[in-house]
What does this fold into?
Amino acid sequence: MLKLAVFDFDSTLMDGETIDFFAEELGIGEEVARITEEAMSGRLDFFESLQKRVGLLKGLDYSVVEKISHSLPYMAGAKETISALKSRGMTVVCFSGGFRTATSYAKDILGYDADFSNVLHEKDGKLTGLVGGDMMFNFSKGDMLVRLQNVLGVSKEETLVCGDGANDLSMFAHAGTRVAFCAREILEREANIIIKEKNLSLILEKIEG
It folds into this structure.
């Protein structure tokens, strides 16, 4: 019986990468998207890639960050899937290597119980190019999952995780149900459920309880 579900945000609960949307505002979309792809495919250390990408955003108006964060396209089936899982008595949480401006705003819209992500540092209304938070490293999601399981009294077998990129690997190691959603090959190899279509509700057909 599943009791805990943890979802990645970018390209899982949300259709796209939040940081790529920010970069487009500065005309550096292709450059940042290339670094994102390297990190998600496991070819670049996540911490280094995050620092590098956020550094390129220095000077972006924080008001623009908030506006973009509050108008992101959510993944088909995201809200319905979370609602269905919660109706089964599950706790649903979002772990994101992205940013709290997006994940905390989406929490009430999509209906998950809590979000753990990173914070973009801003000063005088502009991004400084610095970032900190809960999900800075390759190991962060797995580390946080174990702590959450301990607090909630939930076992590995009672845990479902869902993501798309290499920085989701660490949480896959601590979950019995591992969903690779429109994912990179590096993650699909560790999954026991693979979904190729951009519709999260397909998960519901694959799980019991």
The chain has one domain: 4-206. Strands lie at 4-8, 91-99, 114-123, 126-133, 159-163, 177-181, 193-195.
